[in-house]
Amino acid sequence: MSAVPEGLPVPFEVITETEVDSRGRVSLGRAGAEPGGRYRVARNIDGVLLLTPVVSIPERELIVWDDSALAERIRAGMTEAQAERTVDLGDFTGYATDTDDE
Question: Any bridge partners for residue 40, and if so which?
Answer without folding.
Answer: 52
